[in-house]
Amino acid sequence: MEPHSEELGWIERSQQGDHAAFAQLVEAYQGPVYNLAYRMLHDAGEAEDATQEIFLRAYTKLVMYDRERKFITWLLSIASNYCIDQLRRRRANVVTLDDIAYAIPSTVAGPERRALDQEQRTAIQRAVNQLPDTYRLITVLRYYQDFSYEEIEAITGLSEATVKTRLFRARRMLQELLIKEGGVPWIVEPAVHS
Fold this sequence. Notes:
The structure is a single chain. By secondary structure, this protein is mainly alpha-helical. It has 2 domains: 3-90, Rna Polymerase Sigma Factor, Chain: A; 111-182, Winged helix-like DNA-binding domain superfamily/Winged helix DNA-binding domain (Arc Repressor Mutant, subunit A), CATH 1.10.10.10. It is 70% helix and 0% strand. The protein contains 8 helices and no strands. The longest helix has 23 residues, at 19-41.
């Protein structure tokens, strides 16, 4: 059975009340859901609680799942909405994200290079924390979760043009925040991706 048809089988059986089939969906997708929750909420315990709540919401809304959408984009739209709601409840201006080790690849393994990389990652992390929730969500989906514009559109319900515009603005905001923080010399003008 190919993965997509296996997934559809789990969904259909879950819609009929088969808890074992839903457990298969949870097992298959808990990683991406947890990762999104953790990157948005930056608290392991809160991300675990969020993951459980997101799957509970998905289970109760499974009858409304549209087979025209990828299941993962449908599920992550529930996750992103839940995380944004949690952030709004907090009303905190700064929510840290976990270490973004892959954001700046190191080409040299020496201790000086690692120290510089860590300094850059920390600066970027602080800047991303300061982005408004909607910009942070799109940044996380694009650069941490590696979703395409179409997938982000499906997850957020925003048009592709809006996604691109918000990513462009987020990059501008990040650049301004990083320069303001200390004139980081390695910042370059972001390219506009189409």
